[in-house]
Here is the input.
Amino acid sequence: MTYRPRARRLDNKPKVQQKPCAGIKLRAAFVMGLFVMAFCGLQVKLVTLGMLDGYEPAGNTIQTRLSADMRRGDIYDRNGELLATTLNTYSLYADPKTIMDVGEAVTKIAGVLPDMDTTILRDRLRRKGRFVWLRRNLTPQQAWQINALGLPGLGFRQEMARVYPHQSLLAHALGSVNNEGQGIAGVEATEEERLSQGQDVHLALDVRLQQALRDSLMETLVKTRAKAVWGISMEPDTGEIVAAVSLPDFDPNHYGSAHEEQWLNRISGGVYEMGSTFKLFTAAEMMDRKGVSPDQAYDCTSSISIGRFRIHDPYPKSRWLTLTEILRYSSNIGAARMADTLDEGEQKRFLDELHLLDRTDVGFSHVATALTPQRWKRIQTMTIAFGHGIAVSPVNMVAAVSTLVGDGNWREPSLIRDRAHAAPQRVVKPATVERMRNIMRDVVENGTATRAKVLGYDIGGKTGTAEKNENGAYLKDKHLASFVGVVPLDKPRLVTLIMVDEGYDGEKPGGGGSVAAPAFASFVRRAAPILGITPQITGDMPLVAEHPRVQRVGYETVSFNWGARR
Amino acid sequence: MNKWAVFSAFFALVALIFMATMHVKNDVQALRDKRDRLVERQMRLNESMRVLQAEYTYLSRPERLRQFASVLNLAPVGSMQVVPLTVAFDGGQP
Here is the structure.
């Protein structure tokens, strides 16, 4: 390395440091500015992240979970009693590959779930896959117990199950849901849109009256050995259906395991010949539209022959009968004579005003349409007058009778409370209503419905016995018995229709008076105290109910002396 | 004024703002977590209430109560036992 002396100015003066030029300053300032801007940008971002609203980290947030947990709406009765709800359940699955001891797992799981088939359980745990369902919809207690077993290879998946705490009590009204939680019958189906959006539905049904009606019908089903029994009860001043039972029924919690016969909702899903209960409409039309009085007499001395048809009475009186007596003795001849005075089309118009021929959707999922004659001529008018040759829905029937005994206005029947209804429609005059109540009272007091009496209650009604029609022929030994009753008559609270399919009174086929009317009486005995309907106490009446348990305790009947204090 | 002092003051201010911001942010996050826990607890309680309501309805259904009444030797209310108060207390006419 060679030495090179420092460069010197020629005049030997020291070298003067030159000042940096403006360009370098500018570049330095530019770079510093970039850094400052970057730093400020970071600050702004930090402020944005920390302080401003609306920021939510993506993914699993509470709001996301809440919206995903959109539960199906609940169903309540008119008093707020829970009828249907959705609960979280736990479904048990297994990873067969990680099950170490299948025998031990089967024994322990069977100890918690004793109703589980151990053979099926063992087969599932020995499968080749990595996932197999063992049991769906466990209760929280069962899930806890299985979890506590500490068996590897078992897991739980949370699901939702539809639960009906009252089991089969409101089977046809509520219906059920499928495995995807969609309504497939009853209110679950008709109100699917509201329920699936999480809205609750309130029914007009009263659980207490529903139980009372079901108990009465179940007694009748057993006692009369009937194929089926059904009933519907309505409030005449509102049109609300407070009880509706169709037996046989099913448990909505196990819809799939019921038979087809149990699924059939006879209240709205079928139409029936109502028999002599239809005479109520004939009588009402005569009084309201033709100005006939209840004392007007008709010739019932002999049967009526029209072509190949013959109209006769099962228990003929062979004399002239007043309108009141025609209903008291349920004379087909009398009803036909009355209807024969109507103009063509007049009867159909009256039945239309009562909405008897409508397809009325009250909230049940299955609704049948009335069957009417293709040609509505003289003979059809006469037979329809006593309920043959026409088939109507029980729902429409009870709504029509409510019109005749309520205030004369037809009200749209409804199973669901918070639904828009048609406005009431005047059909008959108040004077006709009063007369109809008296006539129906007379039927119970003196006529074919004496077995509908309940001590202390002012009850009215009409019986009906229709021969069932199979393959175009009427069968004399198979009856469809019916009774439509009202209580109390002075201010009707309940109008109830009860129908019994092939019921027996002893060994012979039962009629409306022998099998259906007693079912109504049984229902009133249960329902009247629930509703607080005060009986009319007159003279000597036993204070306590005629009940076996009460007699065993030893109560005495007490006479009321209204002149002295108790 | 010494530009380094100005620069230092500026950075100190920025640092203070940064610390304050982060403090608030942490507080907000803590409150959010607390809210989420409360909401989850509320959901669990709601679910428990639903289960209890369903269970209560199942246990108090009329059919079951009737069975208990039978065991306890109770009789249903008779129609004659439903009277107006005027009749029960003052001996008035029905």
About this structure: The first helix of chain B runs from residue 3 to 59.
